[in-house]
Design goal:
Length: about 280
């Protein structure tokens, strides 16, 4: 059982360069092309910030690019919302079965594994919440174990480094999630949102943050700044090999990888956190 985990594609409404000069469609297409030789994939997972602006054209283009990759392999694509997404446009463009639901969650069997995608979007904010109704739904699904165990996938990490933007804008009800998965068959939690790779634990379950497709946040910048560099990445998730779950970061072959995309000053970041935080 192998999953190609992508996150934070941030496609814009119009083709062409975004505010950082990055062409989000070209970046996604290049990453998928560089991943074309990976064998044995059973699913592609995209954990949110699919569109940068919630536009239908962005969803349509991501669906076409990722769909072509998946269709060539005869495998499904699983999607979750992120804080940049519009729940309505996301649901209608990506064919989500519960377009009118308060939260866009689904449980999908892939081989002997169950993958549960959750919805942490809070409109107008950058932090994430599962909420009591979704946690109750999750508890009811997890009450019956899956033969190979369960993977949870959603946008906002329930962990954070000692970095203010991560601590204020991550999953706020991580304690509720910890309570819901205690003693259940969850083997791995896959997330995005931070645009960097990060590993931690929730209730002794591995939590993985995959780096962004659109860019990568580089924490070597001065404290309080947000320094983003070019270079699309993804994670190869292996759930069947000995020692699994195994997580391997894949990098697109981009000659400009590592070059500065943007560096946002601490005072600007403080305003963003105040506005989009809790
Ligand atoms: Fe993002
Ligand atoms: Fe995000």
């Amino acid at each position: 059982m192998r999953i190609l985990h992508l996150s934070d594609t941030h496609l814009t409404r119009e083709p062409g360069p975004n505010a950082d000069g990055i062409d989000t469609r070209l970046v996604l297409a290049g990453l998928l092309n560089d991943c074309s030789g990976i064998a044995g994939l059973d699913a592609v997972l995209v954990t949110g910030d699919v569109a940068d602006d919630g536009s239908a054209s962005a969803y349509d283009d991501v669906r076409a690019l990722v769909g072509e990759f998946a269709d060539a392999r005869g495998i499904p694509v699983l999607w979750t919302t992120g804080n940049h997404d519009s729940r309505t446009a996301f649901a209608s463009s990506l064919g989500f079965p519960a377009a009118t639901a308060a939260f866009l969650a689904a449980s999908t069997m892939i081989k002997d594994h169950r993958v549960i995608t959750l919805d942490t979007l809070v409109p107008g904010k950058a932090y994430g919440l599962l909420g009591s109704a979704q946690l109750e739904w999750l508890r009811s699904v997890l009450a019956t174990p899956a033969p190979g165990g369960t993977v949870l996938a959603f946008h906002h990490p329930p962990i954070a480094l000692d970095v203010e933007v991560q601590q204020k804008l991550n999953l706020l009800d991580a304690a509720g999630l910890a309570d819901a998965i205690r003693g259940r068959d969850v083997r791995l939690i896959l997330t995005g949102h931070f645009h960097l790779q990060l590993f931690g634990l929730l209730e002794a379950v591995p939590v993985w943050v995959t780096p962004g497709v659109v860019n990568r946040i580089d924490l070597t910048g001065p404290p309080g700044t947000e320094r983003a560099v070019r270079g699309a990445s993804a994670t190869l998730v292996d759930l069947s090999s000995p020692g699994s779950p195994l997580l391997h970061v894949l990098h697109a072959r981009d000659p400009r990888a590592g070059q500065l995309a943007h560096e946002t000053a601490p005072e600007v970041m403080a305003r963003v956190i105040a506005e989009l935080g809790p």
